[in-house]
Design goal:
216 residues; mainly alpha; 10 helices
């Protein structure tokens, strides 16, 4: 015969334990609910920005606002690593790697650090600084000037410029979608594409040369 449980005595023995644990359970539940409520607030805000009425100028400004939020607030670590990896991947392009070898830009720690610092500073200005502002205009002019002679001589091809632009636009998305706590939304993808299409136009990248060389 099974022993009879003394429920009143059992409950009285468990009361101190319950009183000690219940506040932690309650706080943990509230914390998890707040995390669930607040962690998607930027994604929802980006969606609201995306569907606002727009003009051509406000469209690029809204796209840049979403991109800046992703880069600086939502996923700063992997967004930065994605840009760095994208720039590193461009060194595998034969025309770019041979040019860097001839100019000795990657031949010493000093020149490597200088090139990286300048590239990173320019990126922050023309990708994250407000579109059309004086700092943005100066950064874009400097970027165009750096590449102008190489593009004119054919040492840097339009395909190389387009590949670099695409790598910088997409590599952070690949890393974020694979390793972050959420994926980039469709609205955010649209903002990234809009921004980098604008950057490509500002750099006068010839897209048609790519389409003409693509079969079909």
């Amino acid at each position: 015969m099974a022993p009879k449980l003394d429920l009143p005595k059992l409950c009285s023995n468990c009361a101190p334990l319950c009183h000690g644990v219940l506040p932690y359970i309650l706080l943990s539940t509230i914390y998890l609910l707040l995390i669930r409520l607040l962690r998607y607030r930027r994604a929802h805000h980006h969606q609201q920005i995306h569907y606002q009425p727009s003009t051509p100028q406000s469209t690029i400004l809204r796209a840049q606002s979403i991109y800046r939020s992703l880069f600086q607030l939502e996923f700063p670590f992997l967004a930065t690593k994605g840009i760095q990896l994208a720039l590193f991947r461009t060194y595998a392009i034969p025309t770019i790697s041979s040019l860097l070898d001839r100019t000795k830009l990657l031949s010493s720690p000093i020149t490597v650090a200088h090139r990286y610092s300048e590239t990173w500073a320019l990126f922050n200005e023309f990708a994250l600084r407000e579109w059309g502002s004086p700092h943005w205009v100066q950064a874009m002019a400097r970027t165009r000037a750096i590449h102008a002679a190489y593009r004119k001589s054919g040492k840097v091809r339009e395909e190389d410029m387009l590949y670099t632009l695409a790598a910088v636009a997409t590599q952070p998305v690949v890393l974020i979608n694979r390793w972050e706590w959420r994926e980039i939304t469709d609205e955010e993808i649209c903002a990234i594409g809009t921004l980098y299409r604008g950057i490509g136009d500002a750099l006068d990248i010839d897209y048609m040369s790519f389409f003409r060389s693509t079969p079909g």
